[in-house]
Amino acid sequence: MTPDEAKQHLLRYRPDLTAAEKANDAELAEALALAKQDPALGRWLEEYSARQESLQAKFRQIKPPPGLREQIISEHQALMRMRARRRFIAVAAALTILLCAGIAILWQKPSPENDLAQYRNRMIRVALSPYAMDLETNDLAQIHAYLAQQQAPSDYVLPAGLRNVAVTGCAVEKWQDKKVAMVCFRTGKPLPPGTKSDLWLFVVDRSSVGDAPAPGSPVLANVNVLITATWSEGNKMYLLGVAGDEHTIRSYLQLPAVHAHV
Amino acid sequence: MPDSVDFESLVARYYEPLYQFAFSLTRAEADACDLTQQTFTIWATKGHQLRDTSKVKTWLFTILHREFLASRRRHTRFPHLELDEAAGDLPVVAPTAADRLDSAQVLASLARMDEIYQAPVALFYLQEYSYNEIAEILGVPLGTVKSRLSRGLGQLQQMLAREVAVRKLPGA
Questions:
Q1: What Cα–Cα distance (Å) separates residue A202 from each residue in A30, A39, A144, A213?
Q2: Is the pLDDT assigned to residue A110 strictly greater than 90?
Q3: B59-73 burial by CB neighbour count: b if 16+ within 10 A, else e?
Q4: Which of A18, A59, A75 is nearest residue B126 as measured by Cβ atoms?
Q5: Average of pLDDT values for A209-226?
Q6: DSSP string over B60-77
Q7: What is the mean pLDDT of residues A225-254?
Q8: Phi/psi of residue A145, each to 5°?
Q9: For position A238, what pLDDT does the model report?
Q10: For an interface test with B, which of A8, A72, A76, A77 has the most B Cβ atoms less than 10 Å from its Cβ?
Q11: Residue of B nearest to A6 (CA)
Q12: In angstroms, what separates the C-alpha of B60 from chain A's closest C-alpha?
């Protein structure tokens, strides 16, 4: 290695090089050895090292502007806040979707207020309260026609036990936005003053009541002063109410019976 | 990783050498600040991918260098001047003359060097790294680092000598 070649390698010499680094750099090691033997090269290396120290000091003089560190930390905190906000929004969106899905499911399900007991209580309250029939007639055909016109259930089946009971008229009620046909009868017993009927049959689409009874035996229940029977037939649910006891109401049932419009 | 390495401690420890490296590459305070900031932002986003915590420093410098190269590709703000290959005897710059050059002049000379030499020379003078670490940061083999350092430092010596001569600094 000539002194000029040695200088090329000594350019990358640093006083802080470890022994291992020097050992791993054969050319540098050789150049350093030559600098020890060659006084001129040794002086060159000394001067070069002094220049390098001076240049290193120039690089160390580079100082960050005041506030850079604080700015970096502040930006980081802002970034973290933004991420936390995004996470919050994502979670909130997911919860909203879940909530909407839950509401949709509940919407599909009959609400607790849409059950049979609620329906029965409501209709019997209507029957016992002072009300005006929409149509007063003793003609079942007219009642059928009126209900059909009002788009209320009209193709109902009357129990055989009601065949000989005098009809007095009808009205249209509502349950959960669905129309309920109310057919009024008079049993022949003395009526309280101001009333025109004492036996009522309510007919509604079976799907309108959450826990409508399955087809079969009627369900009996006392509501207020009335005994009621509820049963399903076809796509209709029937509710019959009359003052009396189980024996009384069974006498009006005798299912199946005749079609109202027949 | 960003959770296990406290962010503020990390910034306190490395923002200054990172800024020095960034400034030696860009020579513009705003750009150097941006690069330093961007490096820590990337750490906050991707630092968790680093499994070996002893490599944090190298990782940060590597990211800064990559970001610098990417920004340089986007904006050709840093004109590159070709220089003749160093030939013949190395110029002599007396230590006293080097002392009289300020950091800006040294960095201006660094910026005029061939692009591939700038980063290794800057890391060399920052004295933060061994040759192996410089190789790792720049993503080049060790032998390449050594040859780039020799050639880059030769170019810098030549340019500084020219600078001293032009300014007629005493001791040139």
A1: 113, 124, 13, 15
A2: no
A3: bbbbbbbebbeebbe
A4: A59
A5: 87
A6: HHHHHHHHHHHHHHH---
A7: 91
A8: -65, -40
A9: 94
A10: A72
A11: B150
A12: 14
A185-to-A8, A149, A166, B62, B119 alpha-carbon distances in Å? 121, 21, 6, 95, 104
Selection from A194, A196, A201 nearest residue A226 by Cα: A201
CA torsion angle A34 A39 A43 A45 (round to 10): 0
Residue B81 has pLDDT above 50, yes or no: no
Contact B86, B152 (CB under 8 A): no
Q: What HEC string does B88-114 produce? A: CCCCCCCHHHHHHCCHHHHHHHHHHCC
Lowest pLDDT segment from A34-48, A175-189, B3-17: B3-17
Tell me, rounded to whole angstroms, the distance of Cα B95 from its chain centroid: 22
Identify the residue whose tokens are 């005798």: A254
Tokens standing for residue B53 = 């915590």
**pLDDT band per the 50, 70, 90 thresholds, residue B82:** very low
Q: What are phi and psi of B90, to 5 degrees?
A: -70, 140
Q: What is the pLDDT of residues A25-79, one digit of tens each?
A: 888 888 888 989 989 889 988 888 888 888 888 888 888 888 888 888 888 888 8
- What's the confidence (pLDDT) of residue A258? 43
Alpha helices in chain A, H assignment, sequence order: 3-10, 19-24, 26-37, 39-60, 68-108, 116-128, 140-149, 246-253
Q: Which amino acid is at A204?
A: V
Give pLDDT, residue B128: 67
If 0-12 CB within 10 Å is exposed, 13-18 middle and 19+ buried, where does residue A96 land? exposed
Domains of chain B listed by start with CATH number:
7-74 (1.10.1740.10), 95-166 (1.10.10.10)
- Count of A-B CB contacts under 8 Å: 108
User: With bands split at pLDDT 50, 70 and 90, how would you rate the model's confidence at A164?
Assistant: confident
Rounded to a whole number, what is the distance in Å from the CA of A112 to chain B's nearest CA? 50
| pLDDT at residue A2, rounded to an integer | 87
Instruction: Provide the ipTM.
Output: 0.71
Residue A99 C-alpha, separation from nearest chain B C-alpha, in angstroms: 32
Cβ–Cβ gap B103/A80 under 8 Å = no
Three-class SS state of A110: coil
- What is the token pair recorded at B134? 């410089």
State mean pLDDT over A192-203.
Answer: 89
The residue written with tokens 């009642």 in the block is A143
